[in-house]
Design a protein that fits this description.
Radius of gyration: 18 Å
Oligomer: single chain
Strand content: 25-35%
Order of helices and strands: EEEHHEEEEEHHEEHHE
Shape: globular
Length: 256
């Protein structure tokens, strides 16, 4: 069988109307036991007094440490089954969430962050998602949203109280039912699956997908002749001038 490689590129900025960028991204690639691997994280911080930026920065820092210490050590020790990887990811999410939750109690504040994490290892992908940042996959010519938003609007769609189109315009889409630091017990959406040649993944904050919508996201991801970094930048440029109301972050990963 042919050898897989993962190539990645990313952008993150404050957008057109915010002074501070509280999004944080993490893009790491490498090889462990001769298998390609990549860790892609988007954390969209929220909370006054810059606490949101502190929380999202902390998440990125902790997963950077996790990549070099915990994940690498576990794989070298032969623990590389899907169950092993999920357990290690969810232990790290638990530890980070506890630290943020305790910080909120000490400071008597409500800060937190979304988490969209995509781990690529060998021929599989692993997803952990909290909040309303998203992960998409372009396979062939179809862009599919892999994550499920943890928001009030998403719950209303699930219970058939609202259509997806209504949810996309409803204020309820901004009311999260889960994020890092919100509750003592974090509940992340997990999934895993097989990576195929020419798959292309997008990990992004709501500042990207809200102004573009699914059709334009798909158009931007399908464009040919661009590197992952150029594709991420192209998606950013597709947002009309002055229309980026929130921080904008996008990571594009291509399998070849």
């Amino acid at each position: 069988m042919g050898r897989f490689t993962y190539s990645c590129g990313a952008i993150s900025d404050a957008g057109d109307r915010r002074e501070e960028n509280q999004d944080r991204i993490l893009v790491l690639t490498g090889e462990i036991k001769k298998r390609p691997c990549a860790l892609l994280v988007v954390a969209d911080g929220m909370g006054g007094l810059s606490f949101g930026a502190q929380v999202s920065s902390y998440i990125a820092e902790q997963f950077n440490r996790w990549w070099y210490d915990d994940f690498s050590t576990m794989i070298h020790n032969g623990m590389e089954q899907a169950g092993d990887i999920r357990e290690l990811l969810e232990q790290e999410i638990w530890d980070i969430n506890q630290a943020v939750f305790q910080f909120n109690n000490r400071m008597e504040c409500r800060s937190g962050s979304t988490l969209s994490l995509l781990l690529l290892y060998g021929r599989r992908y692993y997803i952990e998602n909290m909040g309303d940042s998203r992960i998409y996959r372009l396979r062939g010519r179809r862009l599919r949203q892999l994550t499920i938003d943890q928001s009030l609007a998403a719950k209303m769609v699930e219970s058939h109280c609202m259509t997806e189109d209504e949810a996309s315009h409803s204020p309820a889409k901004n009311k999260l039912t889960m994020c890092m630091g919100m509750f003592a017990v974090p509940q992340a959406g997990y999934q895993t699956g097989q990576v195929l040649k020419k798959d292309c993944f997008l990990v992004c904050s709501d500042g990207l997908y809200n102004p573009l919508g699914q059709p334009k996201l798909e158009e931007g991801m399908r464009i040919k002749g661009k590197s992952p970094g150029e594709r991420a930048e192209y998606l950013r440029q597709m947002i009309g001038a002055g229309e980026a109301k929130d921080n904008v972050s996008a990571i594009v990963a291509e399998i070849s």
